[in-house]
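Dear colleagues,

For the upcoming journal club I promised to circulate an example of a predicted protein-ligand complex. I picked one with iron/sulfur cluster because it came up in last month's discussion. The inputs are reproduced below in full, followed by the predicted structure.
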Amino acid sequence: MTKLADSYHRPINYLRISVTDRCNLRCIYCMPSEGISLMSHGDILRYEEIDLVAKAAAELGIAKLRLTGGEPLVRAGLTDLVAMLAKIKGIDDISMTTNGVLLDRYAVALKNAGLHRVNISLDSLRPERFHKITRIGKLDDVLNGIEAAKEAGLNPVKINMVVIRGTNDDEIHHLALLTLSDVWHVRFIEFMPFMEKGKKNRFLVPVSEIMERIEALGKLEPSLPNGVGPARYYRFPGAKGTIGFISPVTECFCQACNRLRLTADGKLRPCLFSDDEIDLRGPLRQGAAVEDIKHLIRQAVVSKPEKHKLIAGVTCERFMSQIGG
Ligand code: SAM
Ligand code: SF4
């Protein structure tokens, strides 16, 4: 197996796969209230096509896969896809990012199919506020999903909170303190201005400020697994859980970027914030074999930019739900 590296010598070993652009929520920072114009079913990659791309990627050295969306659990038969991916030689980690609403129903089946772990989005612990942020969601569904994931052994269960100034930033301390007594791995994510392109990011709470607010509660100490992926992890001394910080806006973590993204309609995106994409669906439907897809993946890796342009205020054409985060 060849090791995949981009033009800046970054090892590329991680593929995020968006399996659908559909979602059962409408989070205010991710989608307009009316939803987005959806891809047709025929536009979306079939499971056999995703499997072929993942096989090609694994042959090049990709070892980690993450399923995302939209909401991955709204796609029918997702456990079948997990089972297919789990059989691929060289793939040693399969995870999923989900809003958790349907996890209570699927956690055990996903674990049995070969899913290793989940990241669950949870932006508020107040039912009314949770409903307001997601425009549809019921907090209890997600809390049940979190418990189901833990019981099924989809560990570590990570909780992602997008911090939105004036909306939920007064709950930072609440989520942080939960890590003292619960095995919660809470990650605070900076708000990215996908919905208000070109405008000042008035909802942003920089990670430096989030950390300051948490350290007012007690000193944090560095925790594992630092150095892997964009999050930096800490914990309160003796705490059961950890606290992670993800700062896509104020601190560029591009130097550690190890990933490619596959959109639901079969485009390979070398960078989250760049609209340069390589089409795989066309070649797949014209009969491309694993070797042909490997060639296109290599092309995407070589074209990875050194860093994104979000700090300069540039975002991208797609909504977050169309890329998968
Ligand atoms: N539906 C799943 C979920 O919500 O976890 C997976 C897809 S969602 C697009 C992936 C991640 O992107 C979530 O953790 C979500 O909170 C994050 N996200 C979406 N829009 C964002 C934004 N404007 N700023 C920061 N994070 C965002
Ligand atoms: Fe759906 Fe996830 Fe976007 Fe919320 S963040 S609207 S759950 S895709």
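Two points we might discuss: The chain is about 30% helix and 15% strand. The pocket of S-adenosylmethionine (ligand 1) is lined by residues 23, 29-30, 68-69, 71, 97-99, 121, 160, 162, 189, 191-192, 194, 320-321, 324-325 (CB under 6 Å).

See you all on Thursday,
B. R.
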